[in-house]
Amino acid sequence: MTTLREIAARAGVSISTASRALSDQAHVEVETRRRVKAVATEMGYVPNALARDLRRNQTRTIGLLLPDMRYSSFASDSSALIQVQLQERGYGMVIYATRHDRETELRCLERLHQQQVDGIIHVPTSMAGSENFNSALGSIPMMEFLRPSASTKLDAVIYDGESGAKAVIDYLFSLGHRHIGVIAGPKRVASTLRRLDGARRAIAEANLPDARLSIVHGEYSPDTGRNAIHRLVTQSDQPTAVFATSAQFVLGAMLATKEIGLHIPKDLSLAGFGDPEWGKLISPGLTTYALPLHEMAMTAVLLITSRVEHPPQDDHVPVRVTIAGNLVIRESTAPVAV
Q1: How far apart, in whole angstroms, are the C-alpha atoms of residue 144 and residue 120?
Q2: Region 200-210: what's the mean pLDDT?
Q3: What angle do CA 225, 240, 168 make, to 5 degrees?
Q4: Given a cut of 80, is residue 25 above it in pLDDT?
Q5: Is residue 54's pLDDT more than 50?
Q6: Longest distance between any two alpha carbons in the chain, whole Å
Q7: CB within 8 A of 219, min separation 6: which ones?
Q8: What is the distance between the alpha carbons of residues 106 and 178, in angstroms, rounded to a whole number?
Q9: Strand locations in 148-293, DSSP E?
Q10: What CATH number was assigned to the domain covering residues 161-291?
Q11: How far out from the chain centre does Cα 189 lie?
C-alpha cells in the first residue's frame, strides 16, 4: 500500500506539505498541490480515513433526533433523505426517537454525546427548543430541523407551519365551508401551536361572521384522527370540512368516515398537512399542504456538516432558513353542499 511518505518523496516535498496538499489545507502553492495530487493518483494512494478522522477527533457521524418513527411520514421521509445526503458526504447517521417527550430528548442527547457524534440534527418537542440542552453537549454543533421553536441561538432549517395551515383553511373557506373541524396534536408540541396559529389567523382575516373552528387535540396517532371524527360528526352542528394536521390523523379520519358511512368529499371534505406518497394514490386523492422535504434535508445536511468541518466562532450569528411548502389540491375536498 502506498504511504504518504512515498508520495512526499516522489513529489519532492516534505511529508507535512504532502499531507496539507492532499487535504486541501492552506499555505501550499498551487503548483505544489497539483504535483502532489498527480503523484498520489499515479501511485494509487488511498488516504486512511479512519486515522485522519481520529487525528481530527471526529467520528464522521451525525445524530438525528426525531419525535416518532411509527406513523410519521415527516420522520420516515426526512430520515431517509438526510441519510442519503450524509452518505454522499462521507458521514454516517445515528437515529433516536424522542416520542415527543422532553425527558426522553435529554436521555437521547446524552447518548449521542457519549457516542461522540460530530453534530446533531434535532426536531424539537416544545417551543423551548434545543438550546437548554446545548450546554451539556460541549462543542458538538446542534441545529433544529422541521419544527420552529423559540430558540435564537441555534441554526435551524424549518418550514412555515403557520402559513401552511392558513393556506389550507383559506382554501376551505373558498369552497364555501364555514364550520371546519381541526384535528390537532398535543398542546405541548411546537408544531401544534404553529398550525393552530395559522388556522386562527385565517379565521381572523376572513371577515366571515359565521366562520368557526372545532378543535380536537390528541397524541400523534391514527387513533386520534379516528376518535376525533367520531366526536366531530356527532355534534348537533357538525363541520362540513375537516383539517387533519398530520398524516397519522388523516389515516384515522379516513377509517372513521368508512365506519360511519360518510363519503369524502360528498359528505365531508378532508384536507391534510404533509404529503406522503400514499396521499396521491388513495381514492379520493388527498388535498394537503406539501413540504419540500428534499430541499430541507439537503439544506440541513449542508449546514450541519459545514459547522462540523468549519467550527464557527463563539460570536457567530445563527443561520435560520425557512422553506415554504405549497397547497396541493386533489379530490378529497369539494364545495360545500347546499
Answers
A1: 8
A2: 93
A3: 70
A4: no
A5: no
A6: 88
A7: 100, 185, 186
A8: 43
A9: 155-159, 179-184, 212-217, 241-244, 269-273, 287-290
A10: 3.40.50.2300
A11: 14
pLDDT at 46 over 80: no
Share in percent of the chain as helix, strand, coil (round to 5) = 45, 15, 40
Instruction: Extract the C-alpha cell encoding 116.
Output: 461522540
Among 331, 327, 216, 200, smallest CA distance to 273 is for 327
pTM over 0.85: no
142-198 pLDDT, tens digit per residue, is 889 887 677 778 889 988 889 999 999 999 999 999 999 999 998 888 788 889 999
Choice between 85 and 73, residue whose per-residue pLDDT is larger: 85
Burial of 100 (0-12, 13-18, 19+ CB in 10 A): buried
Cα–Cα dist 272/277, whole Å:
13
Alpha carbon distance 176, 119 (integer Å): 48
Domain 61-160+293-325 has CATH 1.10.287.40: no
**pLDDT value at residue 215:** 96
Give the number of other Cβ atoms within 10 Å of residue 102's Cβ. 14
Pinpoint the residues of the chain covered by CATH 3.40.50.2300: 61-160+293-325, 161-291
Alpha-carbon distance of 257 to 247, in angstroms, equals: 15
User: Residue 89 has what pLDDT?
Assistant: 85
